[in-house]
Amino acid sequence: MSGFSVAWLDLREGPDFAARDKTLATQALQWMSADADAIPLIVDLGSGTGSTLRALTNPDISTPVGAGPARDALSIVGAGPARDLVWRLVDHNPTLLNEALRRHGKTHIIEDYEADLLALDSLPLTGARLVSASALFDLVSRDVVDKLAAKLAAQNSGFYAALNYDGRTEWTPAHPLDAAVLEAFNKDQRRDKGLGLALGPDSGPYLQAAFAKLGYEVQMADSPWTLGPDNRTMVEELINGIAAATGNGYGLNAEALQEWKEFRLQNAATGTCIVGHNDILALPRT
Ligand SMILES: C[S@@+](CC[C@H](N)C(=O)[O-])C[C@H]1O[C@@H](n2cnc3c(N)ncnc32)[C@H](O)[C@@H]1O
Prior knowledge:
Elements: H1 6-19, H2 22-33, E1 41-45, H3 51-57, H4 70-76, E2 86-91, H5 94-104, E3 109-114, E4 130-134, H6 142-154, E5 158-172, H7 178-188, H8 203-213, E6 217-222, E7 225-227, H9 232-246, H10 254-266, E8 272-283
Parallel strand pairs: 1-2, 1-4, 2-3, 4-5
Antiparallel strand pairs: 5-8, 6-8, 7-8
Helix pairs in contact: 6-8, 7-9, 9-10
Bound molecules: S-adenosylmethionine.
C-alpha cells in the first residue's frame, strides 16, 4: 500500500512520541549496547520518514529516551560505552525513504532499502541487533509475523514494535453511533492492506504470543494516543478516515454515518479522542 503521506506521518508524530512507552523504548536501547561486540544495527521496517529513529535519538525531545543524538542515546541509558547506532530503513515507498534520508542522512548512519515486506526472504535483516517498527504491525498478517519471528529467532535479533492499534477508540462528547462505527472500523482494520489479511487490533497479543513461543522474553505496554484540541487537524483527518473506511460494506446507514461525521467534526476543536495502541519488546533470553 502507498497511502501514507509525509503530511499524515508528520501530523501523527507528536502524539505517537507522547504515546510511546518510554520504559520499553529505553530497554530497546539498552539491548543495543548490551553486547559490546555486536554492531548496533537497527533495521526499521516500514520506516516511513524515520519516526522510530527520531523517537529513539531526537536531540530536540527531552525524555529519558530521546534526549540526545544517536551516539548519546546509548550512553544515556547507562548500558555501555557511547557508540553510534546504525540504521537500516526499509520501506516500499521511495518518497518516504528519500524524505528520511533528506532529514537524517547527514547526521546519522543510515542505509535505506526499498523493499516490500511481503518479500520476507529478501529483506536485509542480516546482522540486525534489533528489528523495529512503528505503526506497522496492525497492517500485517499472521503469516508475515510468524515467518519474521522465526527469522529473527534464528539470528538472535531483538524485536521492538511500537504503536500497534488495539481496537479502542473513545470520544468525548459521546455520540449514539460511536459503538457501531467503532465495530465497523475494527472490521475494516482486519482487511488486507497489502500485507495479507491484517491483524488489526489483534496485532499486539499475536506478536506477544509469536515471540514467546520462540523463547523470547516479551513485554507489552499500552501506548494510547490522547488527542485533544491541540490535535484538531489530526483528529479531523482521523474522523474523515474512519467515515471513509466504514462507509461501505459494514451495514451502517449512510445518513446516520454522515450525521456522526458532522457531529465529530463539529466537536474536533473541543472534544477528546483516545485511540488505544500497544508497544511490544521481545528480546532473546541470554
Ligand atoms: C503507518 S505508516 C508508519 C511509518 C513510520 N513507521 C511511522 O511511524 O511514522 C506504515 C509504513 O509502512 C510502509 N509499508 C506499508 N506496507 C508496506 C509493504 N508492503 N512493504 C514495505 N513497507 C510498507 C508504508 O509505506 C509506511 O511508511
